[in-house]
């Protein structure tokens, strides 16, 4: 599903486009904006795949927003939705993927969504980066480098192969946020990336995993779920 921003200085126009998009099962979150500034703010605060922009808005026009977005490292896709037929050439010069004229036909809007979906699927996913502060310096580390996380009160310590980083996020919150990315709670104090587990040791009265040559305990409560995850990854004959 794709997340979008709909920006138009006329609220009824925003609501019309948002309603039509909401009927499409390919659309996820729809963020509404009634000014160029509000559209840029929505981009700062949310993960957005595409924008549906009116061209003529006061202060920051849709074309102005497109120029700003063109400087982004990973810019969202742009669809202009406008009553102005004369700006199409300039719009496509700014790398817009579509130019939809008002009044909007649902079938025409659906075609724009199809183009967005194709382009989003063809774009290689970038590794998710985690911001950490260390000694007054802010660093970005790929989440894929994190082998396990250790609870330290209201903080959590992220362990990579070569270092560790303390962040002010409780382990319970990370468990919820990273569960779909392969991290499993094995103990009240540990969250482990399944891909980083080297060995699982199941002995009478004691269970543990080895990650980055470090042995971490598995609680009795967490053991059944971990067994299920391990069984799901087991290779079986056809």
UniProtKB/TrEMBL annotation:
Organism: Glutamicibacter mysorens
Annotated PANTHER family: STAGE 0 SPORULATION PROTEIN A HOMOLOG (PTHR37299:SF1), TRANSCRIPTIONAL REGULATOR-RELATED (PTHR37299)
Entry keywords, A to Z: Phosphoprotein
Superkingdom of origin organism: Bacteria
Response regulatory domain mapped to chain residues: 3-117
Residue intervals of the HTH LytTR-type domain: 130-232
Cross-referenced PROSITE patterns: HTH_LYTTR, RESPONSE_REGULATORY
One family name in Pfam for this protein: LytTR
SMART domains: LytTR, REC
Protein name, entry field: LytTR family two component transcriptional regulator
Post-translational modification 4-aspartylphosphate, affected residues: 54
